Amino acid sequence: PGVPVFLCSNEKDRAKAPVKKKEDPSAIKEREVPQHPSCLFFQYNTQLGPPYHILVDTNFINFSIKAKLDLVQSMMDCLYAKCIPCITDCVMGEIEKLGQKYRVALRIAKDPRFERLPCGHKGTYADDCLVQRVTQHKCYIVATVDKELKRRIRKIPGVPIMYISRHRYNIERMPDDYGAPRF
């Protein structure tokens, strides 16, 4: 009683690797499931609502000029609501790179009604930039005519796509309650 006992630990005991437990086949296996945003609880994205923010692609502006469509007015005719076209720095860089032939597109893109979105990444590949932005923030509609970009965006749930058909704007993956009738 009252005598201290000193336990000596062996250096080899400390260096031992932790013993692995054998997996029980009847145990419930845990796995990580990616969490979906709450705005996609219903069939359509509930974050979308007027005023609509529309991410515009380079070729959408060019095809709108070919079809002689006023961008902002045609968007409003399509959705029956206020629309704010948004242009990222990458799209603006692409239009500037196209040169003198596309100066009308550049003038339209610099319209004060358009919202400029700064990009924080390297490179000026607009398709990757738009897909990345839409994946992070599902509050945008993407306006494009590019088939490859449309295919990539269709894989992202809850993001509507605006495109040009029969000399007017049309939209897919949007509730029928919103906007003009589909053709």
UniProtKB/TrEMBL annotation:
Domain of life (superkingdom)? Eukaryota
The residues covered by the PIN domain are: 52-151
Q: Which CDD domains does the UniProt entry name for this protein?
A: PIN_Fcf1-like
Location(s), subcellular: Nucleus, Nucleolus
Gene3D superfamilies in the record, alphabetically?
5'-nuclease (3.40.50.1010)
Keywords linked to the UniProt accession: Nucleus, Ribosome biogenesis, rRNA processing
* InterPro entries, per the entry: Fcf1/UTP23, Fcf1_PIN, PIN-like_dom_sf, PIN_dom
Per the record, where are the segments of Basic and acidic residues compositional bias?
Answer: 10-28
Give the UniProt family note. Answer: Belongs to the UTP23/FCF1 family. FCF1 subfamily.
What job does the chain carry out? Part of the small subunit (SSU) processome, first precursor of the small eukaryotic ribosomal subunit. During the assembly of the SSU processome in the nucleolus, many ribosome biogenesis factors, an RNA chaperone and ribosomal proteins associate with the nascent pre-rRNA and work in concert to generate RNA folding, modifications, rearrangements and cleavage as well as targeted degradation of pre-ribosomal RNA by the RNA exosome.
This protein is called rRNA-processing protein FCF1 homolog
